[in-house]
């Protein structure tokens, strides 16, 4: 490990030294060829930056593998396990820094590309050809052998091939008048648009998923186990939609974390108690998309991804060989990075079609690259500048992201009755991921005197250590019905927000979990550090991680979920005694049923469109741009407490969610918009922020504004009442339901929602 770190450090120093002369372009005004000189410097720098980024990423992967090997080895040393882990902390920090440097270098390379292209495209908007002071073949001659993709597109080192490539494959030069336009690479005809039809057989999906990995076998086993529930749910939704026309989408599913290039640490641990939550979610996404009748392609390797996308051979400097054949791409952060590296110039064009499966979510403040850098929100995972609702989460952490979810097994009437009549009140399950949970004294003290026994459920390395019988381990990997006779399911703080508590509640158990005081966040807990979300009391209000499973605490609650202070033995003891005397029915929120997930994904596919540009952004130099916008379509509610959509205002029938569901409330200073809407029985809807971002809205709410500023801040629009200063949002990507500041009262766009389906409004289906 020390050797690898040393090599990495000296490699970094060498690359930084070699980069030194690359940006020494001449000063502006030195000669008529200044632009040409700077362009050449940028192109040379791009190659060095790409090589530097690639080497740093390879180094980071090697270190990550070493870290996993050491952690898995040291874990079996009992109490001494924490000392090797502590020793590795400096190395882990260095690894994070190297990873961040690699990402920064990659970003710089992309910015160099953008600056170069913008400088060459300066004249296009005025109807003249872009200004190229010297034949572009000069830099092509210096660069064309650096990436095999140039040769793939016909570049052979001749002046003619350079000009053809620059004018027909990329857009650096205008079309060549002497070229026969039919000689350019032909674009394939658009795929015929057919109507989607609900599927009644999951066998083709199982074949489509493929073989060769334990993780794929697990997902196929889960789909088979839930097949009948999926099929019944699909029939019910089909009846609910009443034959509504739905275009079939061509969808690529690329599970990046299962590729060899990302390390794929999940597959070898599937049958050894490894983390299964991500694979549970992906299996359910595959089943839902297939049953809805869409055309799917599934990849778990980089080679397959390149083939499906039409990536030319090489290192990602060229665009795709043909238009993207997919309407949607579902992937994760690993897959997103792989696409960015290999799609070249095409990534920015097609990124609006991407949906990112993101377990813990990405808040707008972390997603916006410039803002995250300036305000200290930059992490290793954020700043993609996507629409925040392109990120899809496992639980509804924040309305800023789309809630994807997963499904839990539903019980029929016979099974529910059987569970009620066969409960064993003296048994419980312990849900934890680390052996240290047995150090909690109150757990060991309580059952002993009462004659209770404990069934042990172990995830992660403890399962591999022999704590969990293999027969039970194999059974729980697919089904949770084995907990049905048990009364109590006890969580000890980790893992966060997994599917297991919902499965236990659905099988009639009561979930008992610890209350975190203070709430866990990226500021006080290692697990959340580096993730693109605050999830803390001072930033996200109601979105903070106040317990092991905030969704169970906030959306389910008693009698199915008890959240108590484990450091208070009296509170813990009283909760356990009450739970053991209480009989509860199995409960599963509708949004975690097969039908609920099908309903939600159907709505997203039909209505979410991130490729169609809405109204153009307001001019950044305008002193009060809100004054230039049309009058507010909002009106004061009959009781004068909030704003609603005016009956006289026009409605776009294509708008989603429908604007009739909008209500505008003003938050308290210590509440985020998420918490504000929740207190009124509503859900924050970030899509509606554009209707609030007007000066007229302050006036309609009787808010006095001595001044109105137009700035970039994820808390705006808002008002600082003590000084009568109002603020409007300058950057639409920063519209955010999360976050608060004691200085501001925020304008919050709220909407209603379907019972048991928080992601959809009442008329959203």
TrEMBL record:
Keyword Protease included in the entry's annotation: no
UniProt xrefs under InterPro entries: GT18_cat, MGAT5_Glycosyltransferase
Catalytic activity: N(4)-{beta-D-GlcNAc-(1->2)-[beta-D-GlcNAc-(1->4)]-alpha-D-Man-(1->3)-[beta-D-GlcNAc-(1->2)-alpha-D-Man-(1->6)]-beta-D-Man-(1->4)-beta-D-GlcNAc-(1->4)-beta-D-GlcNAc}-L-asparaginyl-[protein] + UDP-N-acetyl-alpha-D-glucosamine = N(4)-{beta-D-GlcNAc-(1->2)-[beta-D-GlcNAc-(1->4)]-alpha-D-Man-(1->3)-[beta-D-GlcNAc-(1->2)-[beta-D-GlcNAc-(1->6)]-alpha-D-Man-(1->6)]-beta-D-Man-(1->4)-beta-D-GlcNAc-(1->4)-beta-D-GlcNAc}-L-asparaginyl-[protein] + UDP + H(+)
Record protein name field: alpha-1,6-mannosyl-glycoprotein 6-beta-N-acetylglucosaminyltransferase
Keyword hit for Methyltransferase: no
Chain ranges of the Glycosyltransferase family 18 catalytic domain: 149-439, 486-750
Pathway recorded for this protein: Protein modification; protein glycosylation
Record EC number: 2.4.1.155
GO molecular function, one term: alpha-1,6-mannosylglycoprotein 6-beta-N-acetylglucosaminyltransferase activity
Pfam families given in the database record: Glyco_transf_18
GO cellular component: Golgi membrane
Endpoints of the signal sequence: 1-20
Alphabetic keyword roster: Coiled coil, Glycoprotein, Glycosyltransferase, Golgi apparatus, Membrane, Signal, Signal-anchor, Transferase, Transmembrane, Transmembrane helix
Gene encoding the protein: Mgat5b
Example GO biological process: protein N-linked glycosylation
Family: Belongs to the glycosyltransferase 18 family.
Intracellular or extracellular location(s): Golgi apparatus membrane
Topology in membrane: Single-pass type II membrane protein
Coiled-coil zones: 220-247
């Amino acid at each position: 490990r020390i050797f690898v770190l040393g090599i990495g450090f000296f490699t970094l120093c060498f690359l930084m030294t070699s980069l030194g002369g690359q940006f020494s372009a001449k000063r502006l005004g030195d000669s008529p060829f200044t632009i040409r000189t700077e362009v050449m410097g940028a192109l040379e720098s791009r190659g060095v930056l790409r090589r530097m980024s690639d080497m740093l990423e390879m180094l980071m992967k090697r270190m990550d593998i070493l870290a996993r090997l050491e952690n898995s080895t040291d874990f079996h040393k009992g109490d001494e396990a924490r000392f090797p882990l502590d020793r590795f902390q400096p190395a882990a920090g260095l690894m994070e820094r190297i990873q961040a440097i690699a990402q920064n270098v990659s970003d710089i390379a992309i910015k160099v590309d953008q600056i170069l292209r913008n400088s060459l495209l300066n004249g296009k908007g005025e109807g003249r050809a872009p200004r190229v002071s010297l034949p572009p073949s000069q830099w092509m001659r210096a660069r064309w052998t650096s990436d095999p993709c140039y040769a793939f597109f016909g570049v052979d080192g001749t002046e003619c091939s350079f000009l053809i490539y620059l004018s027909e494959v990329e857009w650096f030069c205008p079309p060549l008048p002497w070229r026969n336009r039919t000689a350019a690479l032909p674009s394939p005809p658009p795929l015929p648009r057919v109507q989607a039809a609900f599927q009644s057989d999951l066998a083709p999906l199982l074949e489509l998923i493929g073989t060769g990995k334990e993780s794929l076998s697990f997902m196929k086993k889960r789909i088979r186990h839930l097949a009948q529930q999926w099929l019944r749910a699909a029939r019910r939704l089909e009846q609910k939609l009443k034959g509504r026309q739905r275009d079939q989408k061509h969808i690529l599913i690329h599970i990046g974390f299962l590729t060899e290039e990302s390390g794929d640490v999940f597959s070898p641990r599937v049958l050894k108690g490894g983390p299964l939550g991500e694979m549970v979610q992906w299996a359910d996404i595959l089943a839902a998309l297939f049953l809805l009748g869409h055309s799917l392609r599934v990849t778990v390797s980089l080679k397959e991804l390149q083939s499906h996308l039409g990536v030319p051979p090489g290192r990602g400097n060229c665009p795709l060989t043909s238009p993207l054949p997919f309407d949607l791409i579902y992937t994760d952060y690993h897959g997103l990075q792989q696409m960015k590296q290999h799609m070249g110039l095409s990534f920015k064009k097609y990124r609006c079609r991407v949906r990112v499966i993101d377990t813990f979510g990405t808040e707008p403040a972390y997603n916006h690259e410039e803002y995250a850098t300036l305000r200290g929100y930059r992490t290793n995972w954020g700043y993609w500048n996507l629409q925040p609702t392109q990120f899809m989460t496992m639980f509804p952490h924040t309305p800023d992201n789309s809630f994807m979810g997963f499904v839990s097994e539903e019980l029929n009437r016979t099974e529910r009755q059987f569970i009620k009549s066969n409960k064993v009140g003296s048994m419980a399950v312990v849900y934890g991921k680390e052996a240290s949970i047995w150090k909690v004294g109150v757990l060991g003290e309580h059952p002993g005197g009462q004659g209770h026994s404990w069934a042990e459920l172990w995830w992660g390395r403890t399962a591999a250590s022999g704590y969990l019988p293999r027969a039970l381990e194999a059974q729980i990997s697919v089904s949770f019905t084995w907990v049905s006779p048990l009364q109590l399911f006890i969580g000890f703080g980790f893992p966060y927000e997994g599917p297991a508590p919902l499965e236990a509640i659905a099988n009639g158990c009561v979930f008992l979990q610890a209350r975190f005081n203070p709430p866990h966040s990226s500021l006080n807990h290692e697990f959340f550090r580096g993730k693109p979300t605050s999830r803390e009391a001072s930033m996200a209000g109601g979105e903070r991680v106040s317990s092991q499973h905030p969704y169970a605490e906030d959306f389910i609650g008693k009698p199915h979920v008890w959240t108590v202070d484990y450091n208070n033995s009296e509170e813990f003891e009283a909760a356990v005694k009450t739970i053991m005397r209480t009989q509860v029915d199995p409960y599963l929120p509708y949004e975690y049923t097969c039908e609920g997930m099908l309903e939600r994904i159907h709505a997203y596919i039909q209505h979410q469109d991130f490729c169609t540009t809405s109204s153009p952004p307001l001019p950044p130099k305008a002193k009060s741009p809100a004054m230039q916008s049309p009058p507010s379509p909002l009106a004061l509610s009959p009781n004068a407490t909030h704003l609603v959509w005016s009956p006289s205002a026009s409605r776009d029938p294509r708008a989603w969610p429908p604007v009739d569901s909008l209500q505008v409330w003003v938050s308290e200073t210590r509440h985020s918009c998420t918490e504000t809407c929740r207190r009124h029985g509503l859900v924050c809807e970030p899509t509606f922020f554009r209707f609030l971002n007007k000066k007229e809205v302050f006036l309609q709410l009787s808010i006095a504004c001595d001044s109105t500023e137009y700035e970039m801040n994820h808390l705006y629009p808002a008002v600082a009442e003590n000084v009568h200063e109002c603020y409007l949002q300058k950057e639409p990507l920063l519209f955010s339901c999360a976050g608060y500041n004691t200085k501001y009262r925020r304008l919050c766009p709220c909407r209603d929602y379907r019972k048991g389906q928080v992601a959809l409004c009442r008329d959203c289906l």
